[in-house]
Design brief:
It contains 23 helices and two strands. By secondary structure, it is an all-alpha fold. It has a single domain, classed as Orthogonal Bundle (Ribonucleotide Reductase, subunit A), CATH 1.10.620.20. The chain has a two-stranded antiparallel sheet. The protein binds manganese (II) ion (MN) (2 copies).
Amino acid sequence: MPKLNRSDWYDLARDMNWDFKYVTYDEVFPKEVAGEYEVPQQDWYTWDESYKVTYREYVLNQHEKDTSVYSVKTALERSKLFESLDHGWLSSLKAHYGAMVIPELLAILGESRMSRFGRAAAWRNMALFGTLDETRHAQIQLLFGHGLLQKDIQFDWTHKAVHTNEWGVIAARHLFDDMFTANDAIATAIQLTFTLESGFTNLQFLGMAADALEVGDVEFGTLISSIQTDESRHAQQGEPTLKILLKHGKDIPQTLIDTMFWRSWRIFALLTGLSMDYYTPLEHRQQSFKEFMEEWIIKQFVDQFRDFGLELPWYWDTFINELEWYHHALHLGVWTWRPTLWWNPDAGVSPAEREWLQSKYPYWEKQFGPYWDLMTENIRNNRIENTYPETFPVVCNLCQLPIVSLPSIVEAPKPKTVNYKGRTYNFCCEPCKWIFELNPERYAGHLSIVDRLLAGHIQPPTLEGALAYMGITPEIAGDDADKYAWAF
Ligand code: MN
Ligand code: MN
């Protein structure tokens, strides 16, 4: 057993930055994968994380976490827990599993890139723990999702989703490839660990953990809280990396954060926005999505990045304005295109729910009420076919989400278009267009689901053809979570 205190050996053991004799520094850290951003080699050696952990401690902690999560799972296996869960809540779970679990596996690539190409030994050490964390997250959630498969076939998409061309999956994959699968180590630290993990994943993981315990889903609540504790440890890679970059100028880190902040906002509005404001049973809602955004993103995260001397992103007013309407507009579209989902969206617009929405979003009735009135009327008059779409929406060539606009504006804002090398690209908003134009070569080759339809990849070019292309089979295809009970 070691006789030294941890503080006596920790720095020596982890700070193994040595000089290379047989290869050059640039060969060890090629800038395509390591990133460069004109920071001198020696500066990276000042990289220092605030919360330290040794391998021995790491293994012990993780073992304890696994033991408690698995014992909750075993204890609940023979209970009637699953049968008692609300259908809307189950939809949140299915959306979460499909969109997040294989991306956890992909996050292993981002973490391992930092654990090999991070330019400081201390950083590589942290990232190695991050690699092990993401391995655990992928495996444990796959196991939990698999456990639910025999109860509900839509949980099959826990594993399947990311391997398909379902439209929401294309959007998630486009984002995650940009953020960590195909990103250099330095940008990954700023975009994945600082922007996403210190900011947005709190929404999904802390928000859903709170809601899970509230609706009585102890299994999922325990699982996701245990994941969140790992995330907050390895998210620490962002701050020291950011501090070093900032010594050499603000522009690069500001752009790295601003681009990924916007992209994260887009996907979390879809994932967390719908779950919190429509799928979670009314009596169990802790806060509205907007209130969660205000507390976790605007108050905590943005305050933190202002402490570093960074500015608010240039599109701030657009963002604040979208908090009122963007995810509501998405919800209307997502519910309408429900056969294209692997979960059953909960309309969430019974009279009591509408009252709640109106109390949280003062313009909700004015903007969205009339649309839901029409849906309600069609359902009551047994005209369900009128509630389905007949055409395909236009999709943004950056975020890959359907282009939606503020319904109360009579003349909807036109999509922004860019012509690049003879091809026309459509964007839902100025920030998405801005991100594309910062680095067009990075994004230009990608075809959105609608581009694929127009290019003849989807045959026949009908809803049925599109469903087959997306991998949606009849037993999976989404339908209203409450079988339209809310309309009566
Ligand atoms: Mn993770
Ligand atoms: Mn992570």
